[in-house]
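User: Can you help me understand a structure? I only have the sequence.
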Amino acid sequence: MHQTVTRADLCESVHESLGLSRQECAGLVERILELMVEALERGETVKLSGFGVFQVREKRARMGRNPKTGEPAAIHPRRVITFRASQIMKGKVDGANGAA
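Assistant: Let's start by predicting it. Here is the structure, written out as tokens:
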């Protein structure tokens, strides 16, 4: 069974850990996410030690194919966000997988 962790879950976890009000925790989580998005919009790298790295990559224009019709289709240049997990995170996730 897969479970999704939501913003509300993060806020609740911060509330339980720090004892701040739920409203303060929600504001804290929102502000952290805002700062990350703002940095990525500027093209900066966001590195969270022990967690991973978020980066913006520029993808060039290229020709692709419409999967339904097989017709060639132009793919416009765009910016995409990539995430690379840290070795610590990879080890923890792999360890959790091995324990299951």
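Now, to help you interpret it: The beta strands are 46-48, 52-59, 62-65, 72-75, 78-85. The domain at 45-100 is CATH 4.10.520.10 (HU Protein; Chain A). Let me know which part you'd like to focus on.
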